[in-house]
Amino acid sequence: MAQLELRQSELELRKLVEREKILKTRLSSQIRNSLDLNTILSTVVVEVRELLQIDRCQFFWCHQEDESTSLELSQQACAPDLTEPLGCSPIQNMEALSEAVMQGNLLCFDDIATDSWLDFKSRNLLVTLGFKSLLTVSVQTQSGRLGVIVCEHSRELRPWSDDEVEIIRGVADQLAIAIDQAQLYNQSRAATAAATIQAEQLNQVLHNLKETQAQLIQTEKMSSLGQLVAGVAHEINNPVNFIYGNLTHVSEYTLGLLELVELYQQSNAHSTPEVEAHIEAIDLDFMAEDLPKILISMKMGANRIREIVLSLRNFSRLDEADMKPVNIHEGIDSTLLILQNRFKQTPGNAGIEIVKEYGDIPLVECYAGQLNQVFMNLIGNAIDALDSYNSKRTIEEIEAKPSQIVIRTQLRNLDRITVKIADNGPGMTEAVKQRLFDPFFTTKAAGKGTGLGLAISAQIVTEKHNGAIWCIS
User: Fold this and answer.
1) How far apart are CA 398 and CA 38, in angstroms?
2) Hey, how many other C-beta atoms are within 10 angstroms of the C-beta on 107?
3) Which of 73, 79, 247, 375 matches a 20 to 30 Å C-alpha distance to 102?
4) Cα–Cα distance between 391 and 381 in angstroms, integer?
5) Around Cβ 338, how many Cβ atoms within 10 Å?
């Protein structure tokens, strides 16, 4: 009998050792395969309950605020035939047990009803709750967090062997390492996520700074250009008005003098040889015929200068910083007049036909100067595209398909108008189209484009006027 009992005890010990190896292997594997804290804790309570064949295994986090101790249930595993798992710890409201746990002590009760270490109140409460045997071991992590593994048995007495206690101690030590690793992993992930978010924010800030810088440069440039244009227009306007205003009088005086000369010739049939010689030298007949034509040409030139000056002032609109109702067609016409030399036909340039299809639209509430800048950028880009296109075409190809820019305006609804500026150039690829309004993006050669015109035009249309701008190729 003694030998049989010894063999039985040895067999159970071997099973226990084998189960311990399996438990450690599973835990190690779980720790390696998952650094999720809840997964690790769940695995520990399940494996410990199955290894020790107990009714319930729980893991609690210990919290101490001022002088009170509280336990927060994290994970638990129960025998399948238990009615329901506990939502709290049996040591939750027992001061002596809670204090022992906080101090990291191991508590082992084979028979709660007769254990002398427990005070009467605690022993009576545990028995009332239906517990017969209890084993707790603290889990102290390097980070300072404290947990506790609670093993409970309620259906019958469950003596805890020294080997089982050592197993639980080993599990607690391994779990403490796993918790630290999981926390370090979570901290590193949080730090990485924070760094990624910060990097994205910095990239966005840098992008915004670049855009702002570009806009400031362009705004300052346009402001300076506007001041220059307004100043030149003002300086030109005075002498032009003086010339234009006096041309009428000069024309009247000249015609009067020519009439007087004619009357003098008629009243004096015989003139002196000196007079005849001078008349022949100055070609009086041709002068009398050509001088009115010259005066008319000068008047047309002065009027043309006045129109250009008026267009420059209308384009710059330096004194119109606020939104006000304006005639959009005047702004487009002023822009075309300023750009006229670029689409005019010359010996080295085939020229570009401008087709204006203006609709019946009302005055538009807008920042006129800024909108004129948009028209300047769009029409200027259309001219650039056609010039580049024509440089690769033969004269015959250009004559077969002359360059053309069509400008259409129409009333879209009660509070919206549409302005379409179209050229019959080669178009663009989808990749270029996607980046068309990006700051600093340009398809032009170095020194011919900054990549700011369309980006700023888009901002003026969308942000300043709550509109939309898009490209159809």
Assistant:
1) 75
2) 19
3) 79
4) 15
5) 20
Cβ neighbors of 378 (< 8 A, separation 6 or more) are 421, 454, 457
Q: What are the b/e assignments for 287-301, b being 16+ CB within 10 Å?
A: ebeeeeeebeeebee
User: Cβ neighbours of residue 73 under 8 Å, at least 6 residues apart?
Assistant: 58, 59, 60, 87, 88, 89
Please give the distance of CA 136 from its chain centroid, rounded to a whole number: 54
d(CA 334, CA 311): 5
Q: Which amino acid is at 410?
A: Q
Lowest-pLDDT range of 195-199, 209-213, 257-261, 298-302: 209-213
The pTM of the full predicted model, rounded to 2 decimals, is 0.45
Does the pLDDT at position 214 exceed 90?
no
End-to-end CA distance of the chain: 100
- Alpha helix locations (H) across 340-402? 340-343, 368-390, 395-400
pLDDT digits (tens, 9 = 90+) for 289-320: 888 888 888 888 777 777 777 766 666 555 45
The per-residue pLDDT for 357 is: 94
Longest dimension (CA), the chain: 175
What's the rounded Cα separation, in Å, for the pair 32 and 177?
12
Q: Pick from 258, 250, 337: which is nearest to 290 by CA?
A: 258
Buried b (16+ CB within 10 A) or exposed e, 132-157: bbbbbbbbbbeeeebbbbbbbbbeee
Pairing relation of β-strands 107-109 and 68-78?
unpaired
> DSSP code of 461?
I
CB of 146 closer than 8 Å to CB of 69: no
Beta bridge partners of 439: none
Kindly report, residue by residue over 217-236, the tens digit of the pLDDT.
666 555 556 556 666 666 67
Q: Which amino acid is at 110?
A: D
- How far apart CA 135 and CA 153 sit, in angstroms, is 9
Q: Which candidate, 104, 235, 114, 126, places its Cα nearest to that of 176?
A: 104
Look up tokens 């990291």; give the residue: 104
Residue reference for tokens 């050792």: 17
